[in-house]
Amino acid sequence: MGQSPGRMMTRKNSQFLLWSGASAQRIQIHVVVTSCLLLLSWVRTRWALLVVFWLGWLGMLVGAVLIILQAPRCRDLPPTNWWNEGPLYQIGNIQVFTDTHNLKGLEQKISSLSQLKVKGLVVGPIHVAPPDDSMNLRFEEISPEAGNLEQFKGFIQAAHKKGISVVLDLTPNYEGSSGPWFSNTSVTNVAERLKSALVFWLNEGVDGVQLAGVERVASIVPSLWSDIRAIVQNRTDQLPDRRVLIGVTERSSAEDVSFLLSSTGVDLLISRVLRAGDMDATERARAIQLLYSSHSQTNLAWSLGGRAEGHLASLVGPTMVKLHQLLLLTLPGTPVFNYGDEIGLMDEGTTFPKMLWDSDEELNGTLQEETAERLSCRRFFRGVSELRGKERSLLFGDFVLLSNSSSSLAYLRVWDQSERYLAAFNWADEAVVLRLNDAVLPQQAAVVLSTNSSALPADGGVDLTNMRLGPRQAALLRFPYTG
Fold first, then answer.
1. Which residue ranges traverse the bilayer (predicted)?
2. Which of 80, 247, 380, 415 could form a disulfide with 397 if both were Cys (CB 3.0 to 4.6 A apart)?
């Protein structure tokens, strides 16, 4: 018997539904399987990326370590003292330095001195010392013309707040004609009295002592000299910071100065080694090289002028002041200047001329020109002094003599991987051409500053194999470390 059309449709519909359900189920299974496969693939990819990341990081770390190991090691900074970090500024006569003529006036000038980037002030002598009269010598009493102890304390505090140290000149017979230590028979007595005075002034906060004629007392009473050195140079619980012992000698030969520096044991020795008679550039270079090769540069001091000799401008001439400022501030050691050397102060018949300060008064044409020249000189001094205080090659770099003749000199200051500085000088009245082609030099260097900015402007380039310096001209050049 045949099936009716209705039953046949129902059966087909049922088969279709069964087929559709099976297909959907298969699709769902396929989707689930595909999702699982995709998830598994992403997990594997993520792990692979993570492995690649860490391998890359590890590779960079290994590379960095290899670079560090293969790179040249930086030199350890040398041990230095505060007096190696900047110039010393001598004020031998308080009365002519300020309008108040005393220590209070000196205190009021501390900010101006700080602008020069000086590291220490060498003051005095200011103690009571009648000329050639050892019996009335009073180390611990300030001369009334210079001020009093309270003013001195205020001055010390003001200087220390600006990071400036204070050295007191305690030369016994500083106004007499029988020598700084009086006669030979008085040396023992004076040296013994000096010992207690040193303790007194160190307790008042001074950062060091200067003494002239050190070779005399060191040779006549060596045991007392050892005591003097120990009092100043040895640290104690009460005085934990380093104090400087500065000697002053009239000797000018490099050999004599070298011997005294070793035999007296002073920290610095101010001498006439750069201002001997008719010394030319060749002899000057020889003296510098001898002292540099024989002593640590932390013990070398360079000066022109002083309490007895007068001011830089009077010794070398006004047109040569900047040249000699550059020389002193770039040699390996501590530069020592007389008050007013930064502005080209002239002696005018006395080694203690009145210090000239900026004024608000209206000036005529001539005075305006003189003031402008003083300010230019001061800016030059401050610029070189500031460089010396922050550039390692100038602070404690090696000294390399490049060229010298009877009238010219060129040397290099080099520290490790820091920028190099080249100082060049021409003392002659005519131009000179320096041909500097040393293996350590590049062909080109940049001008940092010069005594004639028209001829050698700052930031200009210079060919070191053909460098022209005009008459009485000097320049400071710079070039980078290249490995």
1. 47-69
2. 415
